[in-house]
């Protein structure tokens, strides 16, 4: 796995990519998009801040009506059923945003751990190869 830069309309976006072979050709699969963050840790920091903002917005708008467990569909549904339709829709959207960001952060942390495990410093064979050939891996 590695981090690749993509440019769109003059803006750089970053992705964690995994390469594999399919029918003899190299195919790159995007594992996770980092947005404009160059590193996974930066993407985690940005996502953490977005999650805090989303939780604050949810609590500010709905206060005591927010169930303690947002994954509890019954509690969320019961709370939303007591609200007018437009308010309930906004309530569900805010909860969905919080859950999506929580899931994204967990995925970023998993990928960060996996990327650290595959880094050259974590693999003694790769480190030895770099000693033998200083240009190894610079292509």
Quickly list its features:
139 residues; alpha+beta; 3-stranded antiparallel β-sheet; 4 helices; 22% strand
Biggest sheet: strand arrangement = 1-2-3
Summed over residues and divided by their number, the pLDDT gives a mean of 85
Distance between the termini: 15 Å
Summed up, the helix count is: 4
CA radius of gyration is 21 Å
**Unreliable residue runs:** none
Total beta-strand segments: 3
Biggest beta sheet attributes: 3 strands, antiparallel
**Which range best describes the helical content: under 10%, 10-25%, 25-40%, 40-55%, 55-70% or over 70%?**
40-55%
Q: Could you state the order of secondary-structure elements as H and E?
A: EEEHHHH
Our estimate of the beta-strand percent is 15-25%
Which class of secondary structure composition applies to the elements? alpha+beta
Tally of domains? 1
Q: Using the alpha-carbon principal axes, give the shape.
A: elongated
Sum this structure up briefly.
By secondary structure, this protein is of the alpha+beta class. 53% of the residues lie in helices and 22% in strands. The chain contains four helices and three strands.
